[in-house]
């Protein structure tokens, strides 16, 4: 496939750098690296602090501060909201002016509404990946932009967006060379953002019921939640490893017996499950959102949502699965290579449709 000039729009709030703030940032990093490795010229829009090793050009995010008069408006939105709005507005105006001579396609990997709302001002195609359930601002933009070309990260997420837009499905992928097979171990692991909706406290309860040690890893986004629901349980059997980079995290995941995935919300995809399976570590997860699409009987066990006793049983059963079969499932369904190949085809199709219009 010919090399394309791709403008990749990421978050203006969190840098695309390790340790990642969340799955969206990890996904964007892997996507940019793989596109570049395949010979495409990637220009990345992201916040300051983004990994310079991506071999991508970071578009400037111009700082913004409201005037004193604007701030005095009692209905003024928060300053951080205005800064993000300003960044995306500046980008889209720039792309409307000169994007057609600089890029072949725009891939919107952000959660902001302005790229979608302003996509019809561009003379090049834009592809938007839907990483979350509908949010009010983005849903509004979708309904007023019927030409939007959208991809959902799972069939579950595509169904959630059905009332606002039609989306094809491309499952997220992980770098299976970075998330290499590990030897396993005798402890469970939980990793991700330590927040209430990810419910690591339920993983702690289930691990205790199953008689397993448990390691926790990830950024503490909610200090009050961590202090009340996690910290009191930490001891020699329940450990918090900190916010780790992907290589160190993959090392620990590959040496775990099983990974607990405990969302109390409907997961749009479940990147943690894919990363775990890539190391050969099976998954025990609540059957929420897209997780039933990601976790097979060969790679893990699903538990009734919010049922810690069911999860404890799943932890024990999943830990007995052959690690080679778990890894093979990830290679077949969750590789970054398979994901990017499908995006490349979508880019070419979108470019052809734009030229024919």
From TrEMBL:
Signal peptide: none
GO molecular function: glycosyltransferase activity
Chain coiled-coil ranges: none
Residues covered by the Glycosyltransferase subfamily 4-like N-terminal domain: 22-178
Claim: DNA-binding is one of the keywords in the record: no
Keywords: Glycosyltransferase, Transferase
Name of the protein described by the UniProt record: D-inositol 3-phosphate glycosyltransferase
Species name: Herbiconiux sp. A18JL235
Alphabetical GO biological process terms: carbohydrate derivative biosynthetic process
The keyword Transferase appears for this protein: yes
């Amino acid at each position: 496939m010919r090399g394309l000039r791709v403008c990749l729009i990421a978050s203006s709030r969190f840098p695309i750098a390790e340790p990642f703030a969340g799955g969206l940032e990890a996904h964007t990093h892997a996507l940019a690296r793989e596109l570049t490795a395949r010979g495409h010229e990637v220009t990345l829009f992201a916040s300051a602090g983004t990994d310079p090793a991506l071999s991508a050009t970071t578009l400037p995010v111009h700082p913004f501060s409201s005037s004193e008069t604007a701030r005095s408006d009692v209905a003024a939105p928060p300053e951080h909201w205005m800064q993000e709005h300003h960044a995306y507005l500046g980008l889209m105006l720039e792309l409307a002016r000169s994007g057609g001579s600089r890029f072949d396609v725009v891939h919107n990997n952000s959660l902001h509404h302005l790229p979608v709302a302003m996509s019809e001002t561009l003379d090049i195609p834009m592809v938007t990946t839907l990483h979350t359930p509908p949010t009010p601002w983005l849903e509004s933009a979708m309904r007023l932009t019927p030409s939007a070309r959208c991809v959902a990260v799972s069939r579950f997420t595509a169904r959630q967006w059905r009332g606002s837009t039609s989306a094809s499905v491309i499952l997220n992928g992980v770098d299976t060379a970075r998330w290499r097979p590990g030897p396993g171990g005798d402890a469970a692991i939980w990793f991700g953002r330590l927040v209430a909706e990810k419910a690591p406290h339920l993983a702690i309860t289930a691990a205790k019921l199953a008689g397993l040690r448990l390691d926790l890893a990830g950024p503490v986004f909610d200090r009050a939640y961590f202090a009340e629901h996690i910290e009191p349980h930490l001891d020699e059997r329940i450990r918090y490893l900190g916010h780790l980079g992907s290589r160190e995290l993959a090392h620990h995941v590959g040496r775990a017996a099983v990974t607990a995935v405990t969302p109390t919300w409907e997961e749009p995809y479940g990147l943690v499950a894919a990363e775990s399976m890539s190391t050969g570590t099976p998954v025990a997860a609540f059957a929420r959102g897209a997780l039933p699409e990601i976790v097979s009987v060969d790679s893990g066990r699903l538990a009734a949502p919010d049922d810690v006793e069911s999860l404890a049983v799943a932890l024990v059963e999943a830990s007995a699965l052959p690690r080679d079969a778990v890894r093979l499932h990830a290679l077949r369904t969750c590789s970054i290579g398979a994901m990017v190949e499908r995006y490349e085809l979508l880019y070419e199709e979108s470019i052809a449709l734009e030229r024919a219009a």
